[in-house]
Amino acid sequence: MHCPFCRHSDSRVIDSRTADDGMSIRRRRQCPECGKRFTTTETASLTVIKRSGVVEPFSREKVMDGVRKACQGRPVTEADLALLAQRVEESLRLTGVAQFETNDIGVAILPHLRSLDEVAYLRFASVYQAFDSLDDFEEAVRELRATRAGAAAAGAAATDPASAADK
């Protein structure tokens, strides 16, 4: 790490701690040449292998752009998209892998988009799960309905003490 003051090619780490976001490390450094202190932030970089073989850094903005197309005409805000992109990045980081293919990222988006908007989820899933026929759409809709019915039943049981006592 070059000193930002005198451009000396070395520095000494004085203190390290996890940054507030939990995804990076904040380091206090001191230059042995000029003695000045400065702060650096280190993050593990995620890279994406595109279909063409080109490798590029992961971008939340590209996740948002892809999902934005599926959400056209739906009641989804930019804040919703930003939060979804953040959650996708966090779930990718939790895998411990640093390099992903574009299809892996598309698949990682699906569960987050499903909870955000079911219609946008179906639009997006039709591409990333390679729907070939109406049967594929019907199966996806059946799964969504079953999940919704299961969530409604669980919510009703949680709010009705009599039904909880019966179990």
Automatic annotation (TrEMBL):
Q: How is the cofactor bound?
A: Binds 1 zinc ion.
Query: Which residue range or ranges hold the ATP-cone domain?
Result: 46-136
* Keyword Cell membrane carried by entry: no
Signal peptide span: none
- Protein's UniProt keywords contain DNA-binding: yes
The unnamed zinc-finger regions cover 3-34
Arranged from A to Z, the UniProt key words for this protein are: ATP-binding, DNA-binding, Metal-binding, Nucleotide-binding, Repressor, Transcription, Transcription regulation, Zinc, Zinc-finger
Cofactors: Zn(2+)
**Its biological function?**
Negatively regulates transcription of bacterial ribonucleotide reductase nrd genes and operons by binding to NrdR-boxes.
Which family does the record assign? Belongs to the NrdR family.
Protein name, entry field: Transcriptional repressor NrdR
**What taxonomic lineage is listed for the species of origin?**
Bacteria, Bacillati, Actinomycetota, Actinomycetes, Micrococcales
